[in-house]
């Protein structure tokens, strides 16, 4: 039972079918396919080949939908989101490195 509880708290667990993912993200299924083509999100595949999405992927999809709704081209929106994500990861790594330096751990 603990294992399934862990999955519910995991933002990367592919819990949502394409239909449910589209509903949650406020986008069409075609829009989700286009995000896959643009390499913003790559859905997991079930044993039967069905697309499955995580909460993290749905947040990216919702952000892309917002940007496209505001007039940003899909490809540009995807690139911006990818770069924002990379920047956030780099900032987190820098913060961890800084804390290790302050603690005297190299």
TrEMBL record:
The keyword Phosphoprotein does not apply. Signal peptide: none annotated. Residues 73-100 form a coiled coil. Keywords: Coiled coil. SUPFAM superfamilies: Putative DNA-binding domain. Residues 15-83 form the HTH merR-type domain. InterPro entries: DNA-bd_dom_put_sf (IPR009061), MerR-type_HTH_dom (IPR000551). This is MerR family transcriptional regulator. It comes from Actinoplanes sandaracinus.
